[in-house]
User: Fold these one by one.
Assistant:
Number 1:
Amino acid sequence: MTPHFLRRVAALSRKEVLHIIRDVRVVYMALGMPVLLLLLFGYAVSFDLDRLPIALIDYDQTPASRDYAAALSSSGAFAITETPPDTSQMEAAFRRNALKVGVVIPQGFERSLARGETAEVQVLLDGADGTTTSAALGDIVGVTQARTTALLRDGAVALSLPIDARVLMLFNPAMKSVLFVVPGLIALILAIMAVMLTALTVAREWERGSMEQLFSTPVRRAEVVLGKLLPYLGVGMLQVLIVTTLGAELFDVPVRGSLVLLFACAALFLVGMLGQGLFISVITRNQQVATQVGLITSMLPVILLSGFLFPVENMPLVLRIIAAILPATHFIVVLRGILLRGNGMDVLWPQMLAMAAFAVVIVGLSTLRFRRRLA
């Protein structure tokens, strides 16, 4: 290595450092993204339950049954927020996706313990949400075992198993993971494809200069936006048909609700995602940057914040607010509701309204951004 060689390497390195410092996007990707990912994974990825709302029906109304209910509350994993009068109302709450866990203490609970018999407790779990259900099942078994140990230690019973939790999985009796994973995968696939389709194709037109030529014609901005979105909406609806059919044929995912409602909700979701991709293309005007931003803003939120893999209830308030804004959070609820629970519009209208609101806002922002940047 000669001195001239080292000077040339140093000069080129200095030039590249200046490029990095002057490009804010590179600095953000290099320094900001690791911090963002650490915060997201650190706060969002949690399998522990914290005060999960549950419903409790106590048909026994005795000191023993109240002690068991108190053990559930004091565990920290559950909070008894509902006490429906019967199981029919509890099951209706499950179908509305308003409930994940229900506990029923039958009549004669204390009498069975006093006779030295096993006292059974029925536990109802939402099998459509496998992540929350698995964590809740483990915590309920732990609470039951702890209560059993306490009874044995106090000499109140002589059985080795005085309390037995009988579990009933609703909507997914066999607890097949594929039944609650596939709806999330459908949302993930559609989100990535929709964002990338519009982000890349429109960014390519910005780079080639054809977009400026298009706006020099009498065509209006709103007409350009709709003209760009509608073809890809048709492609997206075809993707919905393909992934739904494959999910049913290959993975035995049932379709218990209305297919018309499913495609209507999918259209709302796709418009929002296509609008997001269009907004990214307007902001970046560069295919490489649009690819990076599109993947980050479509894939990571669906995986981490939508309830696909990790319960939203466990996240901090800020992340729960972000999750409530994301259309994927509501689309996954819609998919699980229609495919597994057989829900209709009377149950899913809040999710449809949220997706429609996001679509209107993001498409409107894209249109306004076109106007401002080209003015």
Number 2:
Amino acid sequence: MLSDCAENLVLIGFMGAGKSTVGRLLAKETGRYFLDADALIESAQGRPIPSIFKENGETFFRSLERESAEWLARCVRGSVISTGGGMPAVVERLHAMGRVIYLQLPFEEIMARLGPEERAKRPLFQNPDKARALYETRRALYERQADIILDARMSPRAIVEAVLRQLD
């Protein structure tokens, strides 16, 4: 049974923080649909994000993120939305999409979670030093936009339970 609630739950955090994993569990637990903003962009473009970066560059990709955020804010209700790690950097009003939940995870934990194969798929993770600098820049953006901040070192189930307690 799907939720009849209008408010979306919007998950933000750096690459590898667990947004998709937590998002799927949270959607199931609350009777909402799960939407992955990066998957929406890939579907609309008919190609994977690394291809978009390679062929059109990061600026073009960020414009696609802005467009998808506007569409999500305008058209989607009662869902759990996992944003790409960079969306909070290009979309100033994430609250237009719903209640914003930041999955906070130290950079070292992210590096441990994302093995070399997974990092190779992520264009902005090609240089670990640049990825760390990007993480530090984005951390302040995530904190500023968040309604709820949770420690993503917890298990996905524990994170979902923490979100549910905050929603009551």
